[in-house]
Write a structure and sequence with these properties.
Blueprint: E1 8-11, E2 20-25, E3 29-34, E4 39-44, E5 50-52, E6 60-62, E7 68-70, E8 73-77, E9 80-86, E10 93-97, H1 110-115, H2 122-140, H3 155-165, E11 171-174, H4 182-196, E12 202-206, H5 211-222, E13 227-229, H6 231-237, E14 250-254, H7 255-260, H8 262-270, E15 275-278, E16 286-287, E17 290-291, H9 293-304, E18 307-311, H10 320-330, H11 338-360, H12 366-374, H13 377-383, H14 387-399, E19 407-408, H15 412-415, E20 421-428, H16 432-443, H17 450-458, H18 460-468, H19 480-490, E21 497-500, H20 504-518, E22 522-525, H21 531-542, E23 549-552, E24 567-570, H22 577-584, E25 596-603, H23 607-619, H24 629-645, H25 653-672, H26 676-683, H27 687-699, H28 703-715, E26 717-721, E27 726-731, E28 747-750, H29 753-757, E29 763-764, H30 770-781, E30 787-793, E31 802-811, E32 828-833, H31 846-851, E33 853-854, H32 858-867, H33 869-913, H34 921-939, E34 942-954
Parallel strand pairs: 11-18, 11-19, 12-14, 12-15, 13-14, 15-18, 20-25, 21-23, 21-24, 22-23, 24-25, 28-29, 30-34
Antiparallel strand pairs: 1-2, 1-5, 2-3, 3-4, 6-7, 8-9, 9-10, 16-17, 26-27, 27-28, 30-33, 31-32, 31-34
Length: about 950
């Protein structure tokens, strides 16, 4: 190495020191000062671990005075280099000696790092290339945003999530019946909007009692960490920002709080939001000219926020005007007149009947054919065609439905897949201890309110505890429900059992009694447990070797899915049909494979039995969902409470008969009013099944486990197999970079969907998981693996033969929300050049070639790279000319896809608007603007060299 004072070097193993200057030389050593870091290093002149930094024509060089120069000529004098060329700031000719180059150097080009000795391990180079290929595939996948949800692959949910989630600024009412997964659908839509860049700030506006459920669902199912804002959180956040709602991107707040506090409403309205989600939207009361405060709050927010999701399970037939009011929130221009809305709906009823006949394969009557003829010759031709033609006709009818783009509703009758419910009524004798307590309690009940009296009659253990001073679990020894439970568990063969009681202290007492008196371990789930403690309880229950029973307070009926169990014990009954359905719905959900057995132990002849009879005989609420339960309860609430408090044995008879008659009447109205065309539109005509099959195939693809294992190994993450399904991931002692989501104590993970569904504490890893996404981003956003040198041991080739492997990528500057990656994805273009510039890549696959390479010591590799600098620069220039036509082809293909997909959809919607006014003008304008923006940005796409590897042949 010819050395001179003032020459510039970079330390091979300490690139963070910056660009060094030789400040002292003697016969054996040299001293290098690194001005950017203020460090000095003393090296041996023989094999010093440093690399000379020199620039070539076209490179940009920065002086320590702050101005830059574009190199046009390089001059050497006395061992020092001088660069000549125009200044970047004013274009004037200038010269810059290497001694005066800025000490902070950014080697962002792979060839710069290669020549500066900043070389990466061979496995890093491999990992970067594999990551590029994965990103290329994922960016084009129609499943992006759907893969990561911890959920069963249920077709109608996947269809709705995909259909709505891919829209720009969707405004939709999700109205599936109870148990069909509205929350899951909403979560998937939110997740897709965030992944696609359509939304960054999301607001969940919820009833107070559902906030915890949503918090858990969003975190556990979708890895979305919403911030729960109550008044104390808002007050605390005001110390950090003028508007406390600006302190988080994903916000959850109670509708009740916002409706009651105008100042908070004003702050919420002033904040910028991309998406609003409102659950229990049927509680938003509205009449023409009169709206509740809650409705006014949502209306104001819906006008200001581009995307709106409203959720309700209440059928519109039970309040058609309020149903219109909810649609009005989504599109005030489209739904401005209730009478006009009703008249328009009536026009679609014959279409629904026609669609049903087509699906059932029935022969169309003359009236049906006349109706089809009115739709146009093109559709009329399909009516008498093949099954495929008839399905196309059904699709066209769905397209023409008035509300199918803003309202999506699936019913159990249409979806099916539910194995059913069975009530097991267990009348038990009143124990003497309770009878005595109740008798004394009645004598002293004068000062108690009706609500207190009713609570005690429905829960006589409360009276016993009050008179006996029992703060523990001794009441369990007298209660026949607990005695039955013990016998049931002991003789049940190990089947999992979920018990739900109203109060936490009941649950804790039963747990202590089972453990202390009978040696039965139980998992406990109540409101005072932290989320982590609840996770542990749920995991203990889900494990095959864990507890047989899970004891839940009322909160156990919120936010968790225990459908792997099929036995439910209702220790008491809630005085609300919706809450009863919510309890049963923890097990009776789509995906449940066995009949749900609902055990109701109760004290015979008491208020407990009367309430059970009202539910079962009047509402059939145990063995079927009861969509009319809420209005029935509201109508009979006063009479029902009076009958429960009465001492007469037949106090409920007339009430039950009246409930049954009204139930039958309302259910008949629901069936008659079922909108089958809307249900067909919401099911997706087979598209959901196709999505489910594609996701299932990916679930069993070993590519992700193999890839992620390599990535985490390179980053220094400790990986420990816990069993056949789970792995423990922990930060290693030599972690290269922090990975979001990887906690200090580690996380348990699985690639198995079914296993993850029954264990909330285990994270479900997919291509959509934040840990996987952040790991891939960490590989590609830096320079990791983009410059390398390797040896090829091959006796058939002359020693010293060199190859240069180059990987170019397409890139663009389009905004994320345009999703240009779907049409022009990050595409790796690989070339393997010999010294003549011939590309061998088409005949030599990356994986096969990579397996033949061996690593080389870094210092030797650096010398080889510097010696080959001229050859490599020439080959890079040749390669750029070779790949330009490929980029032009990719851009042309992207243009064609944009015009075919978006242009075709735009043409379809414009034609459809003539017969279906639910197509919004702003929706068409947004689609047209997106199409034009995509075409503009795709035309500006460019090419960048991302990776370079020098390969030298040896014969050893």
């Amino acid at each position: 190495m010819s050395l001179a004072l003032g020459q510039r070097f970079i330390a091979d193993a300490e690139s963070d020191l910056g660009l060094g200057t030789v400040v002292a030389l003697d016969n054996r050593t040299l001293t290098v000062l690194f001005p950017a870091s203020g460090e000095t290093r003393l090296y041996s002149r023989v094999d010093a671990p440093i690399t000379r930094v020199s620039f070539r024509e076209g490179d940009k060089v920065q002086s320590h005075d702050g101005w830059g120069l574009i190199v046009e000529q390089v001059e050497e004098n006395g061992g020092l280099l001088t660069y000549h060329g125009p200044r970047q700031d004013n274009g004037e000719p200038a010269s810059l000696r290497e001694t005066f180059i800025d000490g902070v150097i950014n080697l962002n080009k792979p060839q710069d790092r290669l020549f500066a000795g900043q070389l990466d391990r061979t496995d890093w180079f491999t990992l970067r290339y594999q990551t590029l290929e994965q990103m290329h595939q994922l960016s084009q996948s129609p499943l992006r945003g759907l893969l990561g949800a911890r959920m069963d692959l249920i077709p109608h949910q996947l269809y709705i999530a995909n259909e709505v989630g891919n829209r720009q600024a969707p405004r939709v009412l999700l109205a599936d019946e109870v148990g069909l997964g509205k929350t899951v659908e909403a979560g998937m839509i939110v997740h897709q909007q965030l992944r696609a860049g359509h939304a960054e700030r999301v607001l969940l506006l919820l009833p107070e009692n559902l906030m915890h459920q949503w918090l858990v669902e969003m975190r556990r199912r979708f890895n979305l960490n919403f911030a729960l804002f109550d008044e104390s959180r808002l007050e605390e956040a005001e110390h950090d920002a003028d508007n406390p709602f600006d302190t988080a991107q994903l916000v959850m707040v109670s509708l009740d709080l916002i409706a009651k506090r105008k100042a908070r409403f004003d702050q919420l309205l002033e904040a910028d939001w991309d998406m609003l989600v409102v659950d229990e939207a049927h509680h938003l009361a509205w009449e023409d000219g009169k709206a509740s405060r809650e409705y006014q709050v949502v209306e104001a927010l819906a006008e200001a926020i581009p995307s709106v999701l409203l959720l309700t399970a209440t059928p519109d037939q039970l309040g058609h005007q309020s149903h219109f009011a909810r649609l009005r929130l989504l599109d005030g221009e489209r739904f401005h007149d209730y009478e006009a809305f009703c008249a328009e709906e009536a026009q679609y009823q014959p279409l629904a009947a026609l669609a049903q006949k087509l699906l059932d394969g029935e022969t169309l009557a003359d009236a049906d054919l006349a109706l089809v003829a009115e739709l146009g010759d093109e559709l009329a031709a399909l009516a008498g065609g093949s099954d495929s033609d008839r399905r196309k006709l059904v699709g066209a009818l769905i397209d023409r439905h008035g509300t199918s783009r803003v309202l999506l509703r699936n019913t159990r009758a249409a979806v099916q897949g539910f194995p059913g419910r069975q009530l097991v009524s267990l009348p038990l004798a009143m124990p003497t201890a309770y009878a005595t307590a109740v008798r004394v309690g009645k004598m002293m009940a004068g000062r108690k309110s009706e609500a207190e009296k009713l609570e005690e009659l429905l829960n006589p253990e409360l009276i016993y505890q009050a008179f006996e001073g029992d703060d523990g679990n001794s009441w369990c020894q007298h209660d026949p429900r607990v005695q039955w439970l013990v016998e049931h568990l002991q003789g049940n063969g190990g089947d999992k059992v979920v018990l739900i009681a109203h109060k936490k202290r009941q649950v804790q007492a039963i747990c202590d009694h089972l453990r202390e008196k009978h040696g039965i371990q139980a998992a406990v789930f109540h409101e005072d447990l932290s989320i982590i403690e609840r996770d542990r309880a749920a995991a203990f229950f889900a494990d095959e070797e864990g507890s047989q029973i899970l004891l839940c307070s009322e909160i156990g009926s919120e936010g968790r899915n225990f459908q792997f169990a099929h036995q439910l014990v209702l220790f008491d009954l809630p005085l609300n049909p919706d809450l009863l359905e919510q309890r049963i719905g923890r097990l009776d959900r789509i995906g449940q494979e066995r009949v749900v057995r609902i055990y109701c132990p109760h004290l015979a002849g008491t208020a407990q039995q009367r309430l059970q009879d009202w539910y079962h005989q009047g509402l059939n609420a145990f063995e079927a969902t009861c969509p009319v339960g809420a209005p029935l309860f509201e109508a009979q609430e006063a009479e029902l409470k009076a009958a429960l408090l009465a001492e007469e044995a037949d106090a409920m008879a007339g009430l039950i008969d009246a409930a049954k008659a009204r139930y039958t009447e309302l259910m008949a109205q629901l069936e008659q009013g079922r909108d089958r065309l809307l249900e067909l539109a919401s099911q997706g005509n087979g598209q959901g099944e196709k999505l489910a099959g594609q996701i299932a195939t990916l679930d069993y693809d070993p590519k992700l486990p193999i890839f992620l294992t390599q990535v985490l190994d390179v980053f220094g993450v400790d990986q420990e197999d816990l069993d056949d399904y789970t792995q423990l991931l922990r930060p290693g002692e030599r972690m290269l970079t922090a990975l979001p989501g990887l906690e200090e104590d580690g996380i348990q993970t699985t690639f198995d969907r079914e296993y993850a569904l029954s264990r909330d504490h285990v994270q479900f890893l997919t291509w959509d998981h934040p840990l996987v996404i952040s790991a891939m981003d960490a590989v590609l956003t830096g320079d990791m693996g983009n410059a390398s040198v390797a040896l090829l041991k091959n006796k058939a080739l002359p020693a010293g033969t060199t190859f240069v492997e180059l990987v170019f990528v397409t890139e663009h500057q389009a905004p994320k929300q345009l999703q240009l990656d779907r049409y022009l994805p990050l595409t790796p273009i690989r070339l393997l050049l010999d010294k003549t510039g011939k590309d061998l890549a088409p005949k030599v696959a990356f994986d096969n070639f990579n397996r033949q390479l061996t690593p080389i010591k870094r210092h030797t590799a650096s010398k080889l790279a510097v010696a080959s600098q001229g050859l490599i620069h020439g080959l890079i220039q040749q390669a750029q000319a070779q790949v330009e036509p490929q980029v032009a082809d990719l851009v042309s293909e992207a243009r064609a896809r944009i015009e075919q997909e978006l242009g075709g959809e735009l043409a379809r919607l414009k034609a459809l608007k003539a017969v279906n006014p639910s197509i919004r003008d702003d929706e068409l304008e947004a689609l047209e603007a997106r199409c034009q923006a995509l075409l503009k940005h795709v035309g500006e796409a460019s090419l960048r060299l991302d990776m370079v590897r020098l390969i030298v042949v040896v014969n050893e």
